[in-house]
Design goal:
The protein is an alpha/beta fold. 35% of the residues lie in helices and 24% in strands. The mean pLDDT is 93. InterPro entries: DNA_methylase_N6_adenine_CS (IPR002052), N5-glutamine_MTase (IPR050320), SAM-dependent_MTases_sf (IPR029063), Small_mtfrase_dom (IPR007848).
C-alpha cells in the first residue's frame, strides 16, 4: 500500500512521515507539534482552521483533548438548533454537513507512530495488531489521526470477538476493517424466515462478510455463489465461510453484481441510502445514484431461473428522509420487468432507533426494514 506523505517543520527541522488513513481522508496541509500544555480552546481554534495537531505529550491527555474538542463542537451545534418545521431532507443534509465538520475537526488530533508501529508517547496502548489488521504492512514512521486510530482499534475488537448472529444459531461472523458489519439483526432474521423458492442454488450479491450466504447455507441451500467487488470483503467472506465450515456450499467470487449464470434465488442488501459516500467507510451506507439497487433490479430477470426469486433487502429510512419515494422504488421494480410476490417487514432494534437525541430520530422512529420477494413479471 502506498500512503501520502505528511510534511511539517518542528523547531527548525523539516520532518515527514507516511500519512495513514483507513477512510481515505487526505492529510492536513499544515501541522503543528503540540503537547499537554496546549489549551483546549487554542487547539479547537487550530483544528477548526485545518491545522493538524501532532501530539507529543501523554497519550491519555490526547484522548482527553479529543473529548474536549467534541464537547466544543456539541456546544456550537446546540447554539443553532434546527427549526422543528425544517423538512426532513434538509434536516438530513444539515446532519451530514455536521458529521463532516465533526470528522474534519476531530481528525486534526494526530498521533505519531515509529517504524515498528509503536506509539512513542507516554501511557500509549499497543495498537500494532489493530493497525496491521486495518492497514496491512508497516510503512516506516507514520502519522494517524487519533479518531481513526480509535476506529481501527474498535474494528479490530469486533473482528477478534466476532458478531453473534441469531440467524446462525449464535455462531459468530468476524467483520474485517472496512467491511460492512452485520450488527443490525433484523434484516438477517428476514432472510432466515422468508420462504425459500424451489431450487438448488442462490447468489448473494455484495456479500460483505458473507453473512447472508451463511444464513442461506444454514437453511440448506446446497450451492451459493457470493459476489463482491471489494478485495477486503472478498477476503473477509472467504475467512468467515471457512471458519463456519461452509466451504462446500459457498463459493466467494469477485464480480460486479451478478456472477455468470442463473440461480433460483438472488439476494441483495445494497446500501440503504442514495447518496455520495464522503469516505470509504461510508460506502456501505450510501449508494451513489442508487447504482447497486438499480443494478440488482435491472439484472435480476437475466440471472433468475424460471420460477426464481430475487430478495431485495432495503430499509425505508431513505423514504422517511425524503431521499427516495415509495413510488420511485416501485417504479424501479416495474421498469426492471419485476413484480412483488410479498414484502416481509421488521422493525429495527438497534440503539439509534430509540435515541431521542439523534437529530434524525423522527425518521428513524418510523423506519421499517423489508425483504421484497420479487419475481420476473414478463419475459
Ligand atoms: C450494505 S453491504 C451488505 C453486505 C452483506 N450482504 C450484508 O448484508 O451484511 C453492500 C456490499 O455490496 C458490495 N458492493 C457494492 N457494489 C458492488 C458491486 N457493484 N458488485 C458487487 N458487490 C458490490 C460492497 O462492497 C458491500 O460489501
Amino acid at each position: 500500500m502506498s500512503a501520502p506523505r505528511l510534511e511539517w517543520t518542528e523547531g527548525t527541522a523539516a520532518r515527514d512521515a507516511a500519512w495513514l488513513s483507513g477512510s481515505g481522508t487526505l492529510p492536513p496541509r499544515r501541522v503543528q507539534a503540540v503537547d499537554d500544555t496546549v489549551r483546549a480552546d487554542d487547539a479547537f481554534h487550530m483544528a477548526c482552521e485545518g491545522v493538524g495537531l501532532l501530539w507529543r505529550g501523554d497519550f491519555q491527555n490526547a484522548r482527553q483533548l479529543l473529548q474536549a474538542l467534541a464537547r466544543r463542537l456539541d456546544k456550537r451545534a446546540a447554539r443553532s438548533p434546527l427549526p422543528d418545521d425544517m423538512l426532513m431532507r434538509e434536516r438530513f443534509n444539515r446532519y451530514r454537513q455536521g458529521q463532516a465538520l465533526r470528522a474534519r475537526v476531530l481528525g486534526m488530533v494526530l498521533i505519531p507512530l515509529d517504524a515498528a508501529q509503536v506509539i512513542p508517547l507516554r501511557r500509549a496502548p499497543d495498537v500494532r495488531a489493530a493497525l496491521h489488521h486495518a492497514l496491512g504492512m508497516p510503512l516506516g514512521d507514520a502519522v494517524v489521526s487519533l479518531r481513526e486510530l480509535q476506529g481501527m482499534v474498535g474494528a479490530y475488537e469486533w473482528h477478534r470477538k466476532g458478531v453473534p448472529i441469531a440467524a446462525l444459531g449464535g455462531a459468530t461472523i468476524h467483520p474485517d476493517f472496512g467491511v460492512f458489519s452485520p450488527i443490525r439483526g433484523e434484516y438477517l432474521d428476514l432472510v432466515a424466515r422468508a420462504p425459500l423458492p424451489v431450487g438448488e442454488n442462490a447468489f448473494d450479491i455484495g456479500t460483505g462478510t458473507g453473512v447472508l450466504a451463511a444464513v442461506l447455507a444454514q437453511r440448506g441451500v446446497p450451492t451459493i455463489l457470493a459476489s463482491d467487488l471489494s478485495p477486503q470483503a472478498l477476503a473477509c467472506a472467504r475467512a468467515n465461510v471457512e471458519r463456519l465450515g461452509l466451504s462446500e456450499q459457498i463459493a466467494v467470487q469477485e464480480a460486479d453484481l451478478f456472477p455468470q449464470g442463473r440461480a433460483a434465488l438472488a439476494v441483495c442488501n445494497p446500501p440503504w441510502l442514495p447518496g455520495k459516500a464522503s469516505s470509504t467507510l461510508e460506502q456501505a451506507v450510501y449508494d451513489p445514484d442508487s447504482r447497486m439497487l438499480r443494478g440488482f433490479l435491472d439484472g435480476l430477470a437475466a440471472h433468475l431461473l424460471p420460477g426464481g426469486e430475487g430478495w431485495l433487502i432495503l430499509s425505508d429510512l431513505a423514504e422517511h428522509l425524503g431521499l427516495r419515494s415509495r413510488e420511485q422504488l416501485l417504479g424501479m421494480i416495474e421498469a426492471a420487468g419485476l413484480g412483488v410476490i410479498e414484502r416481509l417487514d421488521a422493525r429495527p432494534q438497534h440503539g439509534k432507533a430509540f435515541d431521542t437525541n439523534d437529530p434524525l430520530h423522527a425518521a428513524r422512529l418510523h423506519e421499517i426494514t423489508s425483504l421484497w420477494r420479487l419475481r420476473v413479471a414478463r419475459s
